[in-house]
Design brief:
The complex is a heterodimer of chains A (261) and B (234). Chain A contains eleven helices and no strands. Chain A has 261 residues and is an all-alpha fold. Chain A has two domains: 180 residues, no CATH class; 74 residues. In chain A, α3 crosses α5. The radius of gyration of chain A is 24 Å and the shape is elongated. With 234 residues, chain B is mainly alpha-helical. Chain B is 78% helix and 0% strand. Classes of the chains: A mainly alpha (261), B mainly alpha (234). Chains A and B meet through α3, α4, α6, α7 and α9 of A and α2, α3, α5, α7 and α8 of B.
Chain lengths: 261, 234
């Protein structure tokens, strides 16, 4: 619960730690899901950070409130799921009346780690692993509802927990979140997820291919050989070609052939 | 029996395009709960047409390909939300057992992904233009301007997803029906080609994602052995 007297003091005195109501935290958390709503190549998620921070800063006097929003709406880049750390810690800095120059410097320093840590953990680790888990269920014969529920359930359990943790840690630790980013989850998590993904990928590839091909088991061996050779070529020239565009080009030729045939 | 005819598509296209809009919005803007993954969007689209199994099949194929997509910040990548919906509708809208259904649905989905990927760049540039227009208000910390810019971006992304799905279905669904009708390769070989392409992209993606982790190669081989054994036991 927020004490009205201390809230009033925080509104008036710069440098006094300000409490944050649970309503404001809840509103900020919900806004985090739209943090990339105005993503662009110039300010990236800068405006999204200000948008998410608005409920937390509402208790500030008008002048400080507007100054904080103007500062937080500038260029910022981070992984969207870890943006809560930035929102929480920068809001804490603004509420506590930290020096604006220090906030700006801290803001700039936060971009890199929040981007790279999140990209490795979520986009290159958790997302492919959840895809592979759902594809395993598909390969083993599960129906549409089960496959979709496994994927969305597993993925979002991690996703929502990460967003909530980030906002909480940011608000609690303020502009001292560096130790939180050295959490073993961020340090060792991507490698562990990669190893589990490797096992699952090996397990599902033959089973999933068989389910997609259907009653043509004799072709499965040929498909596997083509896949291995193709994957080696893609890995070798990966920097110059994206696989899905190459697949589209080859598929176009096949469609033309089938129609002409 | 195929439940979707060209005539009924005209009635279904608006709600299906709304599904594409929601899935497209989910990719980046809101709420990123991965409704935009093809495994989900194509299955939902198939369910909407009355054939969730067909949607799941094309969704699984596209998901293997989407393993390659890592939506890192400013990089350009395929937008699978609306593409998955288009693929799911096209797959579910073909006659059951049609030999060309899977390759044509995959072709249509990938072609839509090219267009939707480009449309995301347009929206991002439009967002930057809006931010420049509101610069004066944003620089003085106007809360209304902050909310306005965010809502404009979300709305435009929703419109983008809707338009991509609507236009793609309007053009590609009738075309897909014609192609499937004159398809000249049998079902087994058609599916084998699709599977080989999807497996190639998936294997390349898995290599890229896991090769830096210690013993990942051996773990993959271990999994492959277990998978092959399970296959032989089936």
């Amino acid at each position: 619960m927020t004490n009205p007297k201390s809230t009033q003091r925080a509104r008036n005195e710069v440098g006094t730690p300000a409490p944050v109501s649970s309503w404001a935290v809840g509103a900020s958390f919900l806004r985090l899901f739209a943090v990339q709503g105005s993503w662009n190549y110039e300010t990236m998620i800068g405006n999204g950070i200000a948008f998410c921070m608005k409920p937390l800063l509402r208790g500030l006097p008008e002048e400080r409130y507007r100054a904080a929003l103007a500062r937080q709406g500038r260029y910022f880049n981070a992984h969207p799921y870890l943006a809560g750390i930035a929102v929480g810690s920068l809001a804490r800095g603004e509420l506590d009346g930290e020096d604006p120059v220090r906030i700006d410097r801290y803001r700039t320093a936060l971009c890199g780690p929040l981007g790279s840590v999140g990209d490795q953990l979520v986009w290159a680790g958790w997302l492919p692993l959840c895809s592979l888990m759902a594809l395993t269920a598909f390969a083993l014969g599960a129906g549409p509802l089960v496959v979709v529920c496994i994927f969305l359930g597993a993925y979002n359990a991690g996703h929502i927990a990460l967003r909530a943790w980030g906002l909480r840690v940011g608000l609690r630790r303020g502009m001292r979140v560096a130790p939180a980013l050295s959490n073993p989850l961020f340090r060792d998590g991507p490698a562990v997820l990669a190893r589990v993904s490797a096992v699952l990928a090996g397990l599902i590839l033959p089973l999933a291919l068989q389910r997609i091909i259907g009653p043509g088991r004799v072709l499965a061996g040929g498909v596997a050989v083509v896949a291995v050779v193709g994957a080696v070529i893609l890995a070798r020239f990966g920097a110059r070609a994206t696989g899905w565009r190459a697949a589209l080009a080859l598929l176009s030729i096949f469609v033309l052939y089938s129609v002409a045939h | 029996m195929c439940k979707l005819t060209l005539e009924s598509l005209l009635f279904a296209i608006l709600p299906v395009s709304l599904l594409g809009a929601v899935a497209g919005l989910d990719m980046v803007s809101f709420p990123q709960i991965m409704l935009s993954r093809p495994l989900v969007s194509a299955t939902l689209a198939g369910a909407f047409i009355g054939r969730p199994g067909a949607g799941l099949l094309i969704g699984a194929v596209l998901e293997l390909i989407a393993l390659e997509t890592l939506p890192f910040g400013a990089s350009r990548y395929a937008e699978w939300g609306s593409a998955g919906v288009v693929g799911g509708v096209v797959m579910a809208g073909q006659p059951i057992g049609a030999a060309g259904a899977l390759p044509v649905a995959m072709f249509v989905a990938l072609a839509t992904a090219v267009f939707s990927s480009r449309s995301m760049v347009w929206v991002r540039n439009w967002n930057a233009h809006q931010a420049r227009r509101l610069r004066t208000e944003l620089d003085v910390g106007s809360p209304t301007a902050v909310d306005s810019l965010q809502l404009r971006g979300l709305t435009m992304d929703l419109i983008r997803g809707f338009s991509v799905t609507f236009i793609a279905l309007l053009i590609l669904f009738p075309l897909s029906r014609r192609i499937v009708a004159i398809w000249g390769v049998d079902a087994v070989h058609s599916r084998a080609v699709v599977t080989a392409l999807a497996a190639t992209v998936a294997a390349g993606a898995i290599w890229t994602l896991t090769h830096r982790a210690a013993r990942a190669g051996w773990l993959f081989v271990l999994g492959l052995g277990a998978g092959t054994a399970l296959l032989l036991l089936q």
